[in-house]
Amino acid sequence: MTNGAQSGRIDDAAAAFSLLGTELRSALSERGFETPTEPQRRALPPLVDGENVVVVAPTGSGKTETAMLPVFDAIVGEDTFGISALYITPLRALNRDMEQRLEWWGRTLDIDIDIRHGDTSDYQRQQQAENPPDVLVTTPETLQAMFTGEKLRRALEDVEHVVIDEIHELAVSKRGAQLSVGLEHLRELAGPSQRIGLSATVDDPDEIGKLLTGDREYTVAGVDIGSELDIDVRCPTPTEEDERIASELVTDPEIASHVRAIDEIISENEATLVFVNTRQTAEAIGSRLKEYGTDIGIHHGSLAKETRIEIESRFKDGDIAGLMCTSSMELGIDVGHVDHVVQYNSPRQVTRLLQRIGRAGHREDAISSGTIIASHPDDVLESLVIGHSAQDGHVEPAAIHHGSLDTVANQIAGLVMGFGEIQAMRAYEIITRAYPFQDLSEEQFKQIVREIADNRIVWLEADDDRLEKRRGTWQYFYQNLSMIPDEATYDVEDVVSGRQVGTLDERFVVNFAEPGEIFIQGGEMWRITEVDEEEEVVTVSPIEDPAGEVPSWTGQEIPVTRQVAEGVGELRAVASDQLAAGGSDTSVARDLTRRYEFGPETITAGLEQLSDQAEAGYPVATDDRIVVEGGAGSLVVNACFGHKINETLGRLLSALLGQRTGSSVGMEIDPYRIELDVPHGISLADAEEVLRDTDPEHVRGLIELSLKNADALKFKLAQVAATFGALKRWRGTGSTSFGKTRLLDALEDTPVYDEALRELIHEELSIEGAQDVLRGVQSGEIAVETVGEHTPVGTGGRGSGTELLTPENADASVIETVKERLQNDRVILFCLHCQEYERTKPVKRVRDQPSCPNCESTQIAALNPWDDETVAAVRADEKGDDQEKQTERAYKAASLVQSHGKRAVIALAARGVGPRNAARIINKLREDEDDFYRDILSREREYARTRSFWE
C-alpha cells in the first residue's frame, strides 16, 4: 500500500479473527473474545499481512490486543535466540500494565514475555541478555541503552515486530524524534521489521505514519472517535449552601460549588476519573473534596510510585469511587472500568478531551461519557468549542520536533556506542531516514559532529571522517539516555511510616520549605520536620489542617491552539451580533444550542462578558477582528488566536513599543488577550500601527532579537548545552551553577544556541501564525478597532484565581496563610554600599529598618534566594547589558527598603513581585495590613498568569 492508505473494514464480524491461526483463534475463544472490536476489524487484515500500520482508536478500546494478536500469531512456535517483538510504551507504569495484560497470552501460547526499564534489577537484565524473551516490553530510553550491550545487540538482530503504544504522546516531544532514529538504528541490526503505532487521537495520521516508518510505506486503520462520545458542559452557580461549604473548606463559594458538583457526579457513578490540568489543582481541589467527604483518591506524577500503585489498585478494586488525576492517566494505565470522566476547567485542547473522556465506557459498544466543569466565561466558551469539536472529531495537529539538533548529537553518540565506530556519512544516512530529520543538511550535521567532538563526546578521525568512542562517550551517553531535561527534585518522606509520599521541585523547597511549614500532597496535610538539602529529602509528619500551602511543580501550561481560540472567536461573533441586535442572554443561548448541544444555562453563563460588552456598545474581538483598548499605561490587544500566536504578537508589540520610548513594556497573555503595561506616551494608535505596518517577513528576526535577553532562553540554553555535552553534568558542574549569561556569550554561534532558540520557539511561539495574522490585518481580512477605555471582555480574562484556588476577595484565613508564608520566605540581604555584607534569612527575622553591620549603611537590597546572579552582577568590574539591568534592579530594591523598611522586604519577597510592582503595592499606602497582603496576593496572581518570558 502507499503511504497513508486507509484500511477498509471487514463487514463480517468474525472474519477478522478468521485471519489468525488455529492457536490464536483457540486462545481467543478461551479468553471469551467472540467478536472483534471495530479497531480490530479495520487493523487485523493489514497487520496479518505484515504491513506497517497506524491504529487510531480510543484509549481502552483494545488497541493492545489489536496490535499483538497478529504479532503473537506470527511468532507462536518460533524457535529463535533473540527478541522477536518489542512493545515500547512512554511510561514505566504502562510497562507494568502491558506486562500484566499480555501475561495470560504468553502463558497460553507458550510465548516468553518480559519487561525492561530503568528500575529492572541487574540480575533480571543479565537473564534477559543470556536468554532473551520472545516479547520485551520497554521504554524508548531503555531501547537506547540496549543498543550498547553486546549480547542484547545480538538479541535485537531477531526483532521482526515493533509496537509503539501511545505514539501520539511521544510524537510531540523530543522523545519521539529520538525514538524515530532509534528505530532506524534497529533497522541497521535487524532489517526492515514491521512497525505498528497505536494512537488515541491524531489530526493527521500521516504525520504519525511518517514518524513511525521514516521512508517506508504504511497503512492507517482508524475509527471515528467523536461519534462515540457523550459530552456535557456545566458551569455551577454558587448557592447559599455553597456559602456555608466555602467557610468550612477555607475557599470561596465558586470553588465550593465546583466541589459540590464534582461530588454529585462521583456519587451518581460507580467509578469516575476527575481530570485537572495541573498537579497544583489536583492537590488543591482534591484536598477540598476529601475535606468535603468525597470518596476520592489523588494521582499524579509527583506522588511516590508505591502511592500511585496503591491508589490505582484501590480505584480498580472499587474501594474508592473517584480518582483525581492529571495527564499521565490519559495514557491508558489500567485502573479498571470507568463509568464517567469529569474534566475540571477547560481541557484547553480537543486532543486532551478525547484522550481523557475516552477513558470512560469501554465495555462493548459503550458510549464514553464525560462532563466539563467550567468556571469562567472564557472557560465556558472554550469548553463549548472543544466539546463540539471533539464530537465532530476535529483535533489539533501533532507538533513534531523537526530538526532538533541536540537529538542529532545524542543519536550520533548512540550510534557510536552501538557500532563502536562508524563513518560519519553512514551515521548521517541513518539519522536522515528518520522523518524528523529528513531535511537535516550535511553542513548542519558536520557542525554538530564538530561540536560534540570538541566537547570530547566522540573522537573524529579527520582523515576518513570516522567517528569513534572515547573515554567521555560512555559517560555522556548514559547521562543523556532521556531527552527530558533533568530538574532537581526533593523526596518527601513521612517520618511516621517511613514511606515516600512524593516529590517536590527545588524552587518550592527553596522558597517555602522550612521546619513547621504546612503543605498539601496526595490530598493530605503535612508539616515539615526537616529539610536535608545535601540528600535532597524533606521529612514530614501528617497533620489535620484545612489550609496548607499547595506545592508548585515544574510544568508547562497546556496551550490553547489557534483552532480552538478562533472557534471561540467565531462563537463570540455570532453571539455578540445577536446581543447587539437586542437579543437577551437566554434567547441567544437557546439559539446557540442548535450548534453547541449543551444546556442553555451553561451557554448563558458563557455570555456574561459579551452581554455587558454589547450593552456598553463596545466591539468584540472575534476570529476576524482585533480590538485594541485601554489607555494611561495599560493596553489590551483582544485577539482570538491562542497562546502561541498571542505570545509571539505580544513579544513583538512589547519590543517595538519599548523601542519608541527606550523603556521596557510589561506583557501578559492568554489565548484571547495581550495585556501590555506601557510607559507614558504610548497610545492605542501606536499598538495599532505596529500591527498594520510591521513587515511579516521581519517577525522572526525581531523575535529572535527579543529572546536574547530572556531568562527562558538562558534556561533552555543550559538544558541544551548539557545534551550537547557542553556542560559535564557527571563532573558536578550542573547547569544552575554555570552563569547563564556567560553560557549565552560562549555558545551564541554554535549549534547549541541554534537548538535552544529553535526549541523555545517551537514550544512557546508561532512565528508563522503571527506572520499570518499580520498579513490578515494588512490585507483587511482581519479588522482592527480601538476603544479608548477598558471593556468587560478586555478586563475579564481567565486569570489565575481558579487555577490557584485562591478567592478573589481573600478572606481572613487565606490572608493569614499568605502572611505566614511571606514571613517565612527567605531573602538575600545585600549591602550595595560596601558590598561585603550578604546574608540569607527568613523575612520574619529581618529588622524593621535593615542596615549593614559592617558599614552601617541602610542601602540594603532585598533579593530572592536564587538571585545570586544579581549579587555577582553588582560586584562585577565590567558589566554587559544583562548585568547592568540586574544592577539597576538591585539599586531599585535597595531604594525601596531604605524608604519603607521591612514593608518593602515583605513585598519584594512575594512571588514574581519585582521592585516596580513592589513600589506600586507600597504606594497604595494601605492602612489596613490585610489590604496590603491582598495587594500582594493580587500581584502574585498576575505573575502566575505570565508565561515564561519575563526578562
From TrEMBL:
Key word DNA repair present: yes
Segment forming the signal sequence: none
Domain Helicase C-terminal: 261-406
GO-annotated molecular function: ATP binding; ATP hydrolysis activity; catalytic activity, acting on DNA; DNA binding; helicase activity
Alphabetical GO biological process terms: DNA repair
One Pfam family cited in the UniProt record for this chain: DEAD
UniProt cross-references to Gene3D superfamilies, sorted A to Z: P-loop containing nucleotide triphosphate hydrolases
Domain Helicase ATP-binding: 44-220
Similarity-based family: Belongs to the Lhr helicase family. Lhr-Core subfamily.
Protein name (Swiss-Prot/TrEMBL): DEAD/DEAH box helicase
